Task: inverse folding
């Protein structure tokens, strides 16, 4: 049984179509990264999954239950970190957690939870004085109450410094190892790489790709860039490289020293052999993988290779 099934979901706000016949599934036990630029429709999707908003058309089921009909049961088994941090200024971290524990009828220790998110020192301080990162940590601790079967985290790294973002990833991993399914949104590709089994990329309310990070990388043309320094280069050799089956493009980057930049999807040795066959001496070479930013860009901008 999938943890989340989104089926033909459409959501309009007046003239604005935020989601258009969106369908995808999150499998039980996986960490699914929900990625997309600002305004792509991530929060709208999450709000409908949690029944904070109603769809214009389409259906959503969570943990095998209809999202609208069983929203209370779903929320009981789900830990949520909503978009935009909303803490109560006059309540302490302990009081926040006690509230979450009571409303879930859970048996949890506020201190242990705050220890996990690195906020135990501020346990009896009022949230009004918290930094953005501290508030975010508190909200995460609240999401962890009651060992939920499903964690839904909307932009969980917002307001966190690099250490905080790393701790967040560690917690996602720990929760997943405990058995929880994790669904989290982000507009930063790097944040999903380390923890996600699969990534869905949303653009203008439509899912443009769903795959592992590795699979997404492979789908970007010219996945690897090969930079070769040679003793000389001529048009004939450049043409020979371009005509190789695995090569997507080849250009001369500089003449001093002569350097060729080649986009390769398969064997790199064929490129080096083509040069050497023409009596050109390869003095040095290096390879660079397509960065995750390249992958994200290729799916979400009009200039990318996956642009529609
Ligand atoms: N309550 C609303 N009323 C009108 N339009 C809305 C409302 N909520 C969202 N939208 C619109 O729906 C689209 C999707 O917005 P949404 O907040 O879901 O995107 P997002 O991917 O979460 O973006 P971000 O990364 O900026 O949070 C946007 O065009 C937005 O302006």
Result:
């Amino acid at each position: 049984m999938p943890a989340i099934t989104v089926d033909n979901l459409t959501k309009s706000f007046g003239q604005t179509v935020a989601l258009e016949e969106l369908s995808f599934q999150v499998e039980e036990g996986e960490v699914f990264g929900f990625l997309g630029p600002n305004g792509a429709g991530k929060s709208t999707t999450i709000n409908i999954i949690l029944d904070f908003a109603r769809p214009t058309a389409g259906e959503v089921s969570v943990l095998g239950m209809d999202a609208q009909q069983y929203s209370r049961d779903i929320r009981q088994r789900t830990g949520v970190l909503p978009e935009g941090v909303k803490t109560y200024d006059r309540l302490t971290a302990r009081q926040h957690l006690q509230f979450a524990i009571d409303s879930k009828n859970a048996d949890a220790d506020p201190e242990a939870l705050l220890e996990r998110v690195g906020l135990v020192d501020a346990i009896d301080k009022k949230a009004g004085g918290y930094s953005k990162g501290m508030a975010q940590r508190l909200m995460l601790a609240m999401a962890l109450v009651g060992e939920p079967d499903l964690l839904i985290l909307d932009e969980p790294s917002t307001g966190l410094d690099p250490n905080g973002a790393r701790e967040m990833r560690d917690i996602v991993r720990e929760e997943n190892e405990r058995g929880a399914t994790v669904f989290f949104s982000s507009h930063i590709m790097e944040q999903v790489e380390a923890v996600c089994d699969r990534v869905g990329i949303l653009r203008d309310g439509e899912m443009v790709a769903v795959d592992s990070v590795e699979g997404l990388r492979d789908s970007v043309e010219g996945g690897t860039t090969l930079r070769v320094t040679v003793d000389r280069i001529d048009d004939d050799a450049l043409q020979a490289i371009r005509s190789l089956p695995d090569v997507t493009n080849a250009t001369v980057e500089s003449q001093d020293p002569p350097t060729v930049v080649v986009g390769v999807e398969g064997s790199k040795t064929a490129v080096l052999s083509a040069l050497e066959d023409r009596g050109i001496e390869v003095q040095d070479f290096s390879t660079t993988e397509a960065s995750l930013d390249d992958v994200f860009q290729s799916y979400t901008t009009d200039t990318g290779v996956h642009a529609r």
Remarks:
- The chain has two domains: 4-217, 221-289.
- Residues 13, 16, 18, 36, 38-44, 83, 187 surround adenosine-5'-triphosphate (CB under 6 Å).
- The chain has a mean pLDDT of 90.
